[in-house]
Specification:
Chain lengths: 335, 219, 335, 219
């Protein structure tokens, strides 16, 4: 295992220390290292709905990189690929509460759902109204009685951005939750891994992949994908990711969409743009208009080589909220 | 032959659990790498290490009942393990703590606390037997303990029967497709792999029986 | 070789096509695919000094990602790791010329210097005044009669940002060149590779590194570094990079510095922040103030795992120019 | 025995160069991977392929003199190779084109054009013999051709002598520390590796001699 780390046990803590030091104008870490969370430097915004997200670490910049004006109020980084426990989620929820209630944005994994649920109960007991929106945009997983449901992946970034803008313009808790639900309902994602990633505490790759194999339909935790196929061209791989998205979302002529090509951490941006290029061409061939684009490493799996494609169907309100100013360590415009 | 077990056993079980989880950390990580995200061994190891720290903290009153021990385990796992296993094991121990409110536990008491644990896991995780989760270990374990109790056996015998059943239950997950947890994303690819949570459950119940037997033989 | 690419020959062209499609509000590509360059969407700004940079591809977002308001006017992406030829540099220079002359920002490599030199002569023949600033911030290479001089690496990003702001505020060509020279003179960098990268046309890693070895003092072209050492902790590696920088730059108590931790493309940002954390602590221990920070993938070596540290000594003017608004695909604030 | 070579030879040399560079592409890449950035073979291959396209373009007038051929090579390499080798080779061929302004070249002419090429490379790159660059191949090549010319040999003999000297010159770079180009960053680590530009130079001069000899034997 080759990493720029010290003790594997301290990876998350030290990384967050560096992160808050580098972005002290935007974010602070909570006082208690046992209940690690990151929140806006200025404290909760009174009267504004607070947005809290979190989950296992290793997906940076998600979530802490999206704390700031127009997006999250607090983020809870758990151990690498492991949902945080209820205590730090509760602490973050308190820090984010400006009296108008708090929205939990939770990626659909058993651990995340259970720990956020408990934290919400505890927050409720302390008089904070909490609503949760669970993201599940990954079309690689079938949503059926026979699975834990679809996973929350890259669409979560768009939920955080757009719901964050809704909260910033003064929407109440129900309205912000409705927007977040709407974004999730209109977003679909699918990912591919060219290489595995290595979790620091495990010290070895999360799966073994031959030199000519790739994993299609991976999640963001180094788990194996739906199937393993021979290495193919970027255009072919793009089709394998995009087709199920387009089908599941029912993209049709005249649709305005946001096309988000996300890197898994170890793929150069030049390759992401090659994927973007073909995905855009294919969407346009379907008669859709790619009205907004996002290309880069936003929700990663450590140093994994690979990418995911997310398509979000836009309406005028979602577009306006996406365009609204945002100022966070990892996403910034208009400010 | 002792037919009740008490706080000494419970404390010894916890210590042995921490040791066993530490020892099997990498094995559990590897099982979870195969069909999950490779953190199960790390998560439990972090949790049980924290339990030990609490248990040995001179500032907290030592637990007086089996229930006290389980409660300490429950709250500590809940606040240190994270992931799916944290809330599930946490709830299991919390319900077991409520079920074991006396100073000692007999065979029926063992069956009761295992039933409570199963109830807690199912309440949180909604899994059934055959879904390839820790439920596949705990459910037969509780049933086996009940059978021993109903047949007039001792607490220690009930625990050993539970441990044996849990191990068989864990092994029974090998050929299954998962329907809950992360392994469910894999579809058919999960076949041939043991569920890490079922494996850790069997491990914990085995050291529970070991702790009871060694207490007994020390008498 | 595992990459999200189609034909290795088309990597640069397809990637640039995706890039300009995704950022059409900011950038356009020149018409002639034989003379590939990227320039501001609105065309040259009349009366403003034009800034042009370029070099081999494979370092994205450098340079095309820095075309936009407050930074470059045009960028010339050569083949992967190969300096572009004079023709596209000339074409870019013409596109960037708003009548106030053009500054070439050239990283100090023989090929880049020679090709930019020729382009400048050709531009001169067409009546465009060109000045060149050659960046050479890499302390891993000794600047002596016995080398081609120090290399231009991550400091180049800071030169482009700060000189870009000077041009935007209306400085004339000599003044912009003076600022660029000043940034370069006050910047020092050094890098480490944990893994090699694979150039698409070569199809195999640029060097072979054992599982427990790292290369200290690498450049940005997958070339081997100054020496190979056993894998060490992030803090130890950070010291190995930072110490020569601090010594060469003569960082002393009271200095205001910008600390830039740059990823080589394949290293997760969590690790970059761990490096940042220790570097910042060490600089502060020297009595310096880390007044500005930049952490991320800005000048990369394809999918290489590794990082570089750059320290720029600031003065009030450089700080103000660094803070000035910038709006490019890869760097954006204030707009 | 022919003592002059002309446009047919020059054209044949260019075609053979493109073939040789294509064949040795990976070898040159590997040499450059070791002490540079691994693109030298790719760069030259791209450049000479473009030269062939220009040469075979029915819309452009076929070159009439040796100088015309070299000029076409010079401008095409300059605008397609990039890196250090593009301007250096480009300037070499450009200066050689000026030196070879007649329709044919004798042994002294070969020495003249090689001298001009060396002059061009040194003017652009400022390297000296021993700096571990292509200069280490071209300089002895030019000197060897001059010796043949002064001794009354043929153009073909001058080219063969140049090729042999260039090969020896390329080999002489193996033990050197580099003082110019990318390899200079490596310090002592460059020792034991051949300079890729010197190697490609030897290759080009070898096919120059081959082209002259095959033209001769065809006569
Ligand atoms: N819904 C569920 N019900 C019961 N057990 C579950 C459920 N989901 C997951 N588990 C158990 O949790 C184990 C995984 O635990 P762990 O790896 O620590 O958490 P995570 O899956 O969040 O990484 C699985 O092996 C399985 O036994
Ligand atoms: N200053 C110089 N003078 C003469 N030859 C040089 C000089 N710098 C580099 N070279 C030659 O160029 C070769 C490298 O060419 P190439 O790999 O195509 O370019 P780059 O170094 O830009 O990648 C070296 O092997 C060397 O022979
Ligand atoms: Mg996990
Ligand atoms: Mg797990
Ligand atoms: Mg090169
Ligand atoms: Mg090279």
């Amino acid at each position: 295992m080759k990493k720029l780390i010290n003790d594997p046990q301290n990876v998350v803590a030290e990384s967050v220390q560096g992160f808050v030091a580098a972005h002290a104008d935007l974010v602070v870490a909570g006082d208690n290292p046992e209940e690690l969370f990151v929140s806006r430097a200025g404290g909760a915004v009174q009267g504004k709905v607070g947005l809290v997200s979190g989950g296992g670490s290793g997906h940076e910049p998600l979530h802490a990189g999206f704390v700031g004006v127009g997006m999250l109020d607090a983020a809870v980084p758990g151990p690498v690929f492991t949902s945080p426990t209820p205590d730090p989620i509760l602490a973050a929820t308190k820090a984010a509460d400006g009296g108008a209630g708090v929205l939990h944005i939770v990626k659909n994994y058993t651990g995340d759902v259970l720990n956020f649920e408990t934290a919400a109960e505890l927050a409720d007991a302390e008089g904070i109204t909490v609503r949760a929106v669970v993201t599940d945009d990954d079309v690689a997983v079938q949503d059926s009685l026979y699975t834990a449901g679809r996973r929350g992946v890259a669409g979560t970034v768009l939920v955080e951005k757009i719901a964050g803008a809704a909260a910033e313009r003064g929407d109440d808790l129900d309205a912000v939750a409705e927007i977040a639900t709407r974004v999730n309902a209109n977003a679909r994602s699918m990912g591919v891994a060219l290489t595995a990633c290595t979790v620091p505490h495990a010290g070895k790759p999360s799966f073994d992949l031959g030199e000519d194999e790739i994993e299609i339909g991976i999640g963001i935790h180094g788990e194996p994908g739906r199937r393993r196929i021979p290495l193919a061209s970027a255009d072919e791989i793009t089709d394998l990711l995009l087709d199920p998205i387009v089908e599941d979302l029912g993209v049709s002529s005249g649709d305005q969409v946001l096309l988000f090509v996300n890197g898994m951490g170890g793929t150069p941006s030049s390759e992401l743009y090659i994927v973007y290029r073909h995905a855009r061409t294919q969407l346009e061939a379907k008669g859709a208009t790619v009205a907004r684009s996002l290309v880069g490493n936003y929700i990663t799996s450590l140093e994994m080589q690979g990418a995911s494609i997310t398509v979000l169907r836009l309406d005028d309100e979602l577009t306006a909220l996406y365009d609204a100013p945002v100022h966070t360590p990892a996403l910034r415009w208009g400010l | 032959m002792a037919d009740v077990i008490g706080v000494a056993w419970a404390t010894q079980w916890v210590r042995a659990s921490a040791a066993a989880v530490g020892e099997h950390r990498m094995e559990l990580i590897d099982l979870d790498r195969a069909i999950g995200d490779g953190d199960h061994g790390e998560n439990l190891d972090r949790g049980f290490k924290a339990v030990l720290v609490k248990l040995d903290n001179p500032d907290t009153a030592p637990p007086e009942t089996v229930g006290d021990v389980f409660k300490l385990v429950a709250t500590t796992l809940m606040s240190t393990v994270g992931g799916a296993a944290g809330p599930l094991y946490g709830t299991a121990y919390l319900r077991a703590a409520k079920a074991a409110d006396g100073a000692t536990v007999d065979a029926a008491g063992v069956a009761d606390l295992l039933d409570a644990a199963v109830g807690g896991i199912v309440a949180r995780g909604k899994a059934e037997v055959g879904d390839k989760t820790m439920v596949d270990a705990w459910t037969p374990a509780a049933a086996a303990a009940r059978e021993v109790a109903d047949g007039g056996g001792t607490a220690t015998q009930a625990l050993r029967a539970a441990a044996t059943a849990a191990r068989t239950g864990a092994e029974s997950t090998d050929p299954l497709v998962a329907r809950k947890g992360r392994a469910s994303y894999l579809g058919e690819r999960a076949i041939g792999h043991r569920d890490p949570g079922a494996q850790s459950s069997a491990l914990l119940l085995e050291v529970a029986a070991d702790a009871a037997e060694s207490a007994e033989s020390a008498q």
